[in-house]
Design goal:
mainly alpha; elongated; three-stranded antiparallel β-sheet; about 325 residues
Amino acid sequence: MTGGVAAADFRDGGAFGEEPGGDGGWAGEKELFRRWLAASLLAPTSQATYLERTGAYLRWLKAAGPQYLDALSSSTGRDQAVAAYLTHLGVERGLARSTHNVSLAALDSYYTWRGLGEPEVEAVSVDRAVPPTLTPLQRSRCLDEAAARTPRDYAVFVLLLKTGLRREELSNIDIDDIHLDAVSGWVRAPGPGDEDRVVPLDAGARRVQLTWAAARRKLLGRKKEKAFFLGRSGKRISPRRVGEIVYEIGVAAGLPSALSPGVLRNTFEQDLLLEGRELAEVVYLMGRSKPDLGKVRALRAAGISARPQRSGPGMRAGGLPGAAVGVAEQLRMEF
């Protein structure tokens, strides 16, 4: 889909023409571009950011005069103008590298919408902070502490760790959203758009959930309640309480920093990446519309660097110490 407006129209008063509000004629085109973005998989906040960045670029382009006259009509003019604009932002406004890339992503979308394709201008490297995850030792300690609590708390912790669910998603699980038997198991949660995602449960995770399911039936007696995880009132557990359970387990395990469902989610994603899962599968299981490549690189690099790389006496295949076990094997033993 393209904007359907000739570049010449913009030079003669379209995107560069004056309109109320000081947008330099951007207002009319903005609505068409907004509709195109709305049909994409971008989050609403990203759509708003892209509109803002594109408008700023077009105002700069208008102020630059005839120097970039073909910026909206040729690939060469496009690339020269976009490169100059990003340089202008970096020099004049001290633009951060991450913000540079967001502006470039906005212009990638804008020029794709116009039918010229993405500018051939490189993004800049951004050092991504490593998202917090549990080390194998921390994981083991947390599982020990979780197992010493109620069956519900243990099930909450294990399900977060083994599925990467967000706290709100776990709170909203109904009895019909989770399948458990001796040979298979899965949990259903929202995915991008109107699609649900189904995350499988391994044998260890199933056993913990089955234990809670039995305790849940005993707790409810003849009462009916569709929520799988219950609070003290016998009704659905709140997202806040989910976070408190995880935090309390982290404190009991002696973690140096606060433990949250987000850390368990990061740990699950790192496990998937280190298992060699395809990126599309990771995106699906995490309930995203597209990969966060910066986070993927950071998680993968951190996980690989934490593993011993050399083989030797007392080392298992893959460079793991004989006294340690792999992630999946460790969790099976814990459960």
